[in-house]
């Protein structure tokens, strides 16, 4: 893995990729969602803790359950998206460390430490959500990540009787670029980065 990706790949992943709010009327097959997770799960997390949990809201009935918990600006575009992924994080992630990180007793690093559990789950779950977006773009899917929803209500609706908490949402499908506005400005290197 010493070769830089070709420009076409960098364009698809970053330069030409956009946040979509409108969607083509095309299904995202379940097999593609399986492929998506198979890629996204390979991204690194601390001690391979892998706290992210992904719930793909695809059916009309599931979307109707999600709808009242979305902010006004997110309702219509989410109802029209082929899939809305709820990216969550499992506060019981450390229970799986004997399997995921078997060469040491990593579970003991977290037991009885709720603040460390929350920070680790949220940080690494957020990373995994970003991997999901990147993986989706490699598979030809467009993404519409967003906040703007009632986390507590979504957790009650979709993650009841678990220790999973929602982080953010990401609409997935094949974007309709008809209403895309010009890309918003980005910082220059020297405004956000420093080499020391």
UniProtKB/TrEMBL annotation:
<protein>
    <recommendedName>
        <fullName>Putative NADH dehydrogenase/NAD(P)H nitroreductase AUC71_04050</fullName>
        <ecNumber>1.-.-.-</ecNumber>
    </recommendedName>
</protein>
<keyword id="KW-0521">NADP</keyword>
<keyword id="KW-0520">NAD</keyword>
<feature type="domain" description="Nitroreductase">
    <location>
        <begin position="22"/>
        <end position="161"/>
    </location>
</feature>
<dbReference type="InterPro" id="IPR023936">
    <property type="entry name" value="RutE-like"/>
</dbReference>
<keyword id="KW-0288">FMN</keyword>
<dbReference type="InterPro" id="IPR000415">
    <property type="entry name" value="Nitroreductase-like"/>
</dbReference>
<keyword id="KW-0560">Oxidoreductase</keyword>
<dbReference type="GO" id="GO:0016491">
    <property type="term" value="F:oxidoreductase activity"/>
</dbReference>
<comment type="similarity">
    <text>Belongs to the nitroreductase family. HadB/RutE subfamily.</text>
</comment>
<dbReference type="InterPro" id="IPR029479">
    <property type="entry name" value="Nitroreductase"/>
</dbReference>
<keyword id="KW-0285">Flavoprotein</keyword>
<dbReference type="InterPro" id="IPR050461">
    <property type="entry name" value="Nitroreductase_HadB/RutE"/>
</dbReference>
<dbReference type="Pfam" id="PF00881">
    <property type="entry name" value="Nitroreductase"/>
</dbReference>
